[in-house]
Amino acid sequence: MTAPGGPAPLPNRKDVVQHTDNAPWWRSAVIYQVYIRSFADGNGDGVGDIAGIRSRLPYLRDLGVDAIWITPWYTSPMVDAGYDVADYTDIDPLFGTLADAEELIREAHGHGIRVIVDVVPNHSSDRHAWFQEALAAGPGSPARDRYVFRDGRGENGELPPNDWRSTFGGPAWTRVPDGQWYLHLFAPEQPDLNWENPRVRADFERVLGFWLDLGVDGFRIDVAHGLIKAPGLPDLGPDGEDVLEPTDRVDHPHWDRDGVHEIYRAWRRVSDRYPGQRVFVAEAWVANAQRLARYLRPDELHTAFNFDFLRAPWDAARLRDVVDTTLGTLGEVGAPATWVLSNHDVVRHVTRYGRPHTEGRGPRHDVSEPLDLEQGTRRARAAALLMLALPGGAYIYQGEELGLPEVEDIPEERLQDPVWERSGHTNRGRDGCRVPIPWSGDAPPYGFSTAEDAEPWLPQPELWKTLSVERQSGDPASMLELYRSALRLRRENPALGDGAMRWNDTPDGVLSFSRDPGFTCVVNVSGEPYELPAGAEVLLASGDLDGGRLPADTAVWLATS
């Protein structure tokens, strides 16, 4: 157990190459996202848990990741899969105990893996003691001021205070028996906290300290672009709201307000008091890269997810533009890029790349379009090598190293995402990327659970038996072995990780860049084979090469002089 306030144990792995002298670990880190409900079930109830994560730490070590990010494990009614937090300093019994969490942190550090946990500051659960106290205390009370309560409009206050909509569908306001309304930008069970209240700010600084004292290495900040609302709560107008839909408005009444930066400067002061290079990563869906860079100024957060890269279609010009804009804009504030292809809120990229229109702003996608999984898998393999060769860090969403596609045929009665109900059954939501991953065997639960007869919380498709860790291990042509090889080479090669790159001249549809010393990545996004430079040594390719030519939808890493 880590002593309160003491340093997080440093990784003891011997295969780490420090790419830049004295550079913080997070500038080059490959971080694996563990969606706790779907990673591994250690107690046989069909839901992933801390025991399951602990049992799979050797797998993560051997995969070659530097850290894991664990989605919320706090006490919760689970209306939104744990993102409705009822106690920020305890573990939900569904996942284990606080002692289990401490042991996981200790064991992960022993394997050389750092641990990042989610923090959910925009809203709590309606079951949180703070909100229950606010309901009981009544209008005008200090307890009620922890949340965003307002009187309604209309002659008798029967209309919501403004026209804001929930990102999950429906109105963003719910009326309570005494007549006031409370704001919830997500589900009604997730009331928004009032970040203008100093007590809220102090409470969350204590929450950060609690987990830092236990030895966590950082935090992923959920809805980091939320928190602050415009004075007077003005109407939004005709702009629609959708889950994970980045706004194009710079002066939005409740997203990306300038006041959030004061909060994060205070958080940075908290983390800087701890040794071990603790880190923040922001989930900030903002209008452009310039707005994102504001979160990463030297006295604010360390890193942020690069959703422009995730959303980019399989198009060379668009990909290059995202890379250039990201590196240029973040470089101005001294921040590293972080590259990401999938997460628990968006359609898995194997499926996105397998459809004609691959650009997406959130979980919505057109399932009526033809799906070519072979093409999607081929492009996903190439995209992995592109992502892992770019300067900065990278995030891997559990199962992407297995090439898992989106599960699009979950029976309606099994859907659990609140988006499904809140949208009036018009948006199936995000469950398709959250299906428990396969480890072994030919039938559900495919090694996901310690109980062979356990029914996973979301149904697994028959396809999973061909994509399990067991089936792919040792197969040099598998997605898993591609990721293992790429991560090993990334750790060994001093050219990779944080640093600089330069583009090479290529025809339209081909991306080629070099990094010193002696490394080149080439990605063929065109429909025609591309002649590779003569004399280069192939370190790794995402698919078979055609002699000295790089086929379409294929990437290669080269050792060059």
Automatic annotation (TrEMBL):
Pfam family membership, one: Alpha-amylase
Signal peptide from the UniProt entry: none
One GO MF term attached to the UniProt entry: hydrolase activity
Ranges of residues in domain Glycosyl hydrolase family 13 catalytic: 33-434
InterPro entries to which the protein is assigned, alphabetical: GH, GH13_cat_dom, O16G_dom_2
Keywords per UniProt: Hydrolase
Annotated PANTHER family: ALPHA-AMYLASE FAMILY MEMBER (PTHR10357), NEUTRAL AND BASIC AMINO ACID TRANSPORT PROTEIN RBAT (PTHR10357:SF179)
Family: Belongs to the glycosyl hydrolase 13 family.
The name this protein goes by in its record: Glycoside hydrolase family 13 protein
